[in-house]
């Protein structure tokens, strides 16, 4: 049986600093739980030796185990907590405050690194691991705390986000145990998706309308984009795909 991820809760007795740290940020006390990765029954993919019902998502993909101690230790602004990221994506909650993401007639509000110089229809079909945002002060907070968004951001309305993939560690068949390889992004219909130990949920953005940006639209002739910015989560540049 495959169950959906439960809503995360704070550790008992640990205060949450409201307004200071984005909701999806990982804290230094939230360690990955050691879990032996073994071949799945039948040999098609990976499993945990002591696998539990909640270790897989509704598509049967295995997810990394991580402690939930929000507010304990120091915030790791360049890291994302897998449980909270997945919860925010699934429920379309703001990545900064956990409240429902802002929505209007054009769709949900997303904050992205500026990729308008990459191709004319950007961000249509863009894949992202970043959950949406609410209007409030969360956009300003994210821009201020994330160095990759400063002078490099665009707010986008997304009419139809499709949760259709994962980002995580790809394993390769090995003897006696699967061998960890590169970190990858895989759609749920990819033939090797069950060899991925997922750590973030991926959304494909369709029906996009650019709302505002840090600067006028860059063009190939002016070259105004200030170089490629590395991903905040290590996911690398998002891939494009046709909407379905």
Describe the structure.
The protein is mainly β and 244 residues long. It has one domain. The protein has 2 helices and 10 strands; from the N terminus they run ββββαβββαβββ. The strands form 3 sheets. Strands 5, 6, 7, 8, 9 and 10 form a 6-stranded antiparallel beta sheet that branches. Strands 1-4 form a two-stranded antiparallel ribbon. Strands 2-3 form a two-stranded antiparallel sheet. 34% of the residues are buried. Residues 1-7, 11-18 and 221-244 have low confidence and may be disordered.
Outline of the structure:
This protein has about 240 residues and is mainly beta. Helices cover about 5% and strands about 30% of the residues. The chain has helices at about 80-90, 140-145; strands at about 25, 35-40, 45-50, 75-80, 105, 105-115, 125-130, 155-170, 180-185, 195-215.
Shape, principal axes of CA atoms: globular
Number of helical segments with 4 or more residues: 2
* Low-pLDDT segments: 1-7, 11-18, 221-244
Number of domains: 1
Major beta-sheet overview: 6 strands, antiparallel
Radius of gyration: 18 Å
Structural class: mainly beta
Sequence of secondary-structure elements: EEEEHEEEHEEE
Tell how many strands the DSSP assignment holds.
Answer: 10
**Helix percent band:** under 10%
In what range is the share of β-strand residues? 25-35%
Quote the average pLDDT.
83
Terminal-residue CA separation: 27 Å
């Amino acid at each position: 049986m495959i169950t959906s991820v439960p809503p995360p809760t704070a550790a008992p007795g640990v205060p949450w600093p409201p307004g200071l740290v984005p909701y999806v940020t990982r804290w230094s006390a939230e360690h990955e739980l050691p879990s032996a990765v073994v071949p799945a029954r039948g040999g098609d993919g990976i499993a945990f030796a002591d696998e539990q019902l909640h270790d897989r998502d509704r598509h049967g993909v295995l997810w990394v185990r991580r402690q939930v101690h929000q507010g304990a230790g120091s915030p790791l602004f360049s890291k994302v907590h897998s449980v909270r990221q997945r919860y925010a994506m699934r429920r379309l909650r703001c990545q900064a405050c956990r409240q429902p993401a802002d929505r209007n007639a054009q769709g949900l509000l997303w904050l992205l690194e500026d990729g308008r110089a990459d191709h004319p229809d950007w961000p249509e079909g863009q894949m992202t691991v970043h959950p949406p945002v609410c209007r409030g002060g969360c956009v300003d907070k994210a821009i201020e705390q994330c160095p990759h968004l400063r002078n490099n951001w665009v707010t986008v309305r997304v009419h139809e986000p499709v949760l259709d993939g994962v980002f995580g560690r790809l394993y390769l068949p090995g003897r006696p145990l699967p061998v960890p390889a590169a970190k990858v992004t895989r759609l749920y219909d990819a033939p090797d998706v069950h060899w991925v130990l997922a750590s973030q949920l991926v959304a494909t953005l369709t029906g996009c309308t650019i709302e505002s940006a840090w600067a006028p639209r860059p063009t190939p002739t002016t070259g105004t984009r200030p170089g490629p910015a590395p991903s905040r989560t290590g996911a690398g540049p998002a891939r494009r795909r046709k909407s379905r």
